[in-house]
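Weekend entry, working from home. Most of the wet-lab plans are on hold until the incubator is repaired, so I used the time to fold the two sequences that have been sitting in the queue since the last round of cloning. Logging both here for the record. First:
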Amino acid sequence: MLFTTNTLRWLEEVLQERFGHRYTLMQSSELLTLSLPGSEAKITFDHLQKIFHQSRSNFPCEYWKPSTEGYEAPIKDSLAAPSEHPLSTPLIECHELGATVHYDILGCTYWMLTRMEEIGRVDLDEHQRFPASSSHAFKFGYLERPVVDEWMEILGQVIKIVWPNIRLKSSEFTVRVSHDVDYPSRYQFLSYDKAFRSIGKSIIKHHNYKEAWLIFKTRFLSGSSLMDGDPYNTFHWLFKTSERFGVKSAFYFFAGSSNKTMDANYDLEDASIKNLIKEITARGHEIGLHPSYDSYLSDNKIHLQFLRLLNICRGLGIQQEEWGGRMHYLRWSHPYTLNQWADAGLNYDSTLGYADNIGFRCGTCFEYPAFDPVDQKRLSLRVRPLIVMETVLLNSKYMNLGTGSDALHRVESIIKKCRAVSGTFTLLWHNSSLNTPQEKELYINIIRKCTRI
């Protein structure tokens, strides 16, 4: 048996969220059957694959053309099918008893959503992250395709053939924008030594007295609010931009430090940070957690930092229906970090995107219930996959697309794919990455593409 009972119950939940009906999954021998209560018809998957229950990226990928069998591809008429065996022809056969699918759609869904591929991997980058370049999706050219959602679209068409009288759930394209607050100010939280060195450098090396004065007044005269003119204080600009396009932004804050070199230099107790948090919620936006650099492998740091964030927000009179956030530097050890988020009592995590490439790390642009493939258990947490992070686009170490048309066209292509499957485009843009008119223009153009305003 490839699927455990817990896996089947979780997959049933995934299918119910996607299609709006409670299906039953049963496994017998090498077959997996999907049935609908009250109906004798079934959809049978008869080519189950062991690779979807293994942490591997070194196996082939086939491609299937849906139109050859009368199915409509949501994005492109060539659908990636990770598989250790050549695909059967035809791939889908409909008959009086229902349909037989000769591809392990639900196995692939399980493998992608649970990130089975990443467990125990040692081919990590300098921040101990699993890179896109090591993934099966990158190696076979479908990282920028929501392959799980595309296969769900095909499965939905098969379901309609087998049970023509049921109405499937429909969804609408949405956008989620978030901002990791690594540096709320460029100068305000510098140590005395660093502040005076920066002032001296501006005067002696650059002869920039205006910048020297900005550093001085920001560091020593700012009081209980962030200083206007600080290049990282782009919060009001972000508020106005989100509100202009009808978008709710989420701002994820540090609530503790575990690495002085890599973590933020501000404290939640600072009056300017508290006032910023109050303004964010007063304007209808969201507060979330940005756990410290080394917390991803800690037994309790995420929990303690979340409690601190909660206590400070409650002290400010702030309440939210749900709480979530994202790991600093996207550091993630799967499924350990996933369990830490769940154990901390957070409602969702939005870390799972790659640090070196945009695209669909989880194969989907839909939020879904978390599942631990090691302990084979459903977790009280939801996964919101991260699709695009601005540093991936701008950083010369990664995609290096700049702020012009190349970056915009690449992101627009991703947005169109999310829209084609009626999913959610999730964007991370740091408040400290809006220092130039070009960066701001790219950000606005991306939001505009999402909202069509």
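Second, folded right after the first finished:
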Amino acid sequence: MRRRRRHYEDSDSQHGIDLAPMLDFVLNLLIFFIITAIFIKEFGLEVNRPSGVEQTASDAEGITVSVLANDEIWVDGRVVDLRAVRANIERLHAANPQGGVLLVADGEARSGLVIEAADQVRLAGIYNITFTTTD
């Protein structure tokens, strides 16, 4: 017995599945993700460094912490390691409990190092921190 091939007269049924519903679905997904991406809030911290300001007499009574571009930290004229900033600040603050801290950051200093130095000052118990930059 010989099998006969059926010849369809409808040419659309021979060529496969219809892609139009899938394209509609993909387009709807694309629109959904574009619309929801607008409402996603990115978290971050915007920091505007202050311009260089001259030191006033009230700041001169406090402790000066300088962060240089070559990652050196100076506390009252001495180079200290980041881990020793807190101990030096506590020692100097014990001598002058009313004074604050002037944190001077070089314009080319890494922001992360400046923040870490400020964190060490806050861990030492001083919340009166004045920030300034140098060029």
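Plan for Monday: verify the second prediction. The mean pLDDT is 81.
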